[in-house]
């Protein structure tokens, strides 16, 4: 493997920290661009880049002699975020990074996007060839960011790879997992025994390993889905989290139609869709093009995530 200089934007974030650590352990020289300077495991140099969505010469200067840029910065998926903030973080910032990379002639740009661009649930397997169907502001901002970056790098010397991870797991992850941990840790009965679905996930360290492979590979597909080859049902997901918490929970077999109506009445129809629907990725392309397959089992990383959660049961 050839040692490369890699600039990681968003290295203080959940995915960015794992990417920085993994690239360094593989022998690459890792430069990190942060809004505010802080220690990042694996970084050999830190650049205080400020707001990536604002024009600045700092980022371009940091890309001198850089072989690859990984843009892992962005605003994560959470409830109640202003669409303008999502656009600034996931479209404008990605555009500024791409513009700087093209201007400096950086050979390779890796953009960390999201499989949320395919929606929250799908009845059939989806792959890189599937048509995106974003159904919330977050997913639309990620897809818009992809489009903006593609336009910027088109015709330049900079090669683009877009990584679309399914829900990323690990201690400190965001999304629905922390909510489930709190729910499982409480004494509330769980009426989810009748949910029979298949959803794809991936451990954060496997996302980082895939990006390491992409950077080291002379030619990678422009778009890659990141997911473990084995999906998991919501019921088994809950059981794995419960094991991590050291609890045994019985899931009551309440009909899903009743739960769906209750969720709609509570204004949580979209959350229910992502909780109960299937969302299974076809990951064959990463294997055939790069020889990569995520190796950390989903039950294992769920147990570890729950075991390392900050949840404290106050009901006893």
From TrEMBL:
Domain NAD-dependent epimerase/dehydratase: 6-220
Pfam families: Epimerase
Name used for this protein in its record: NAD-dependent epimerase/dehydratase family protein
Naturally occurring in which organism (per UniProt): Acidiphilium acidophilum (Thiobacillus acidophilus)
């Amino acid at each position: 493997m050839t040692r490369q200089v890699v600039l990681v934007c968003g290295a203080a974030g959940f995915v960015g920290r794992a990417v920085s650590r993994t690239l360094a352990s593989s022998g690459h020289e890792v430069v990190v661009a942060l809004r505010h300077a802080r220690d990042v495991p694996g970084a050999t140099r830190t650049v205080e880049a400020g707001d990536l969505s604002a024009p600045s010469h700092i980022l371009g200067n940091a890309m001198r002699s850089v072989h690859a840029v990984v843009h892992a910065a962005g605003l994560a998926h959470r409830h109640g975020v202003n669409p303008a903030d999502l656009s600034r973080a996931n479209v404008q910032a990605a555009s500024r990074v791409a513009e700087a990379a093209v201007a400096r002639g950086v050979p390779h740009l890796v953009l960390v996007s999201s499989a949320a661009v395919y929606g929250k649930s799908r009845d059939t397997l989806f792959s890189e060839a599937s048509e995106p169907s974003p159904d919330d502001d977050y997913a639309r901002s990620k897809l818009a960011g992809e489009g903006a970056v593609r336009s910027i790098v088109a015709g330049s010397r900079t090669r683009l790879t877009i990584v679309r991870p399914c829900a990323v797991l690990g201690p400190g992850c965001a999304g629905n997992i922390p909510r489930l941990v709190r729910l499982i840790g409480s004494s509330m009965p769980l009426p989810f025994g009748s949910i029979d679905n298949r959803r794809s996930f991936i451990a954060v360290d496997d996302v980082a390993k895939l990006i390491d492979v992409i950077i080291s590979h002379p030619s990678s597909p422009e778009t890659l889905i990141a997911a473990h080859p084995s999906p998991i049902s919501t019921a088994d997901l809950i059981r794995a989290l419960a094991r991590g918490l050291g609890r045994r929970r019985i899931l009551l077999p309440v009909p899903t139609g009743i739960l769906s109506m209750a969720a709609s009445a509570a204004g949580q129809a979209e959350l229910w869709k992502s909780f109960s629907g299937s969302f299974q990725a076809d990951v064959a392309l990463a294997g055939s093009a790069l020889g990569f397959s995520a190796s950390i089992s989903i039950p294992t990383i769920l147990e570890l995530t729950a075991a390392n959660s900050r949840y404290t049961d106050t009901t006893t």
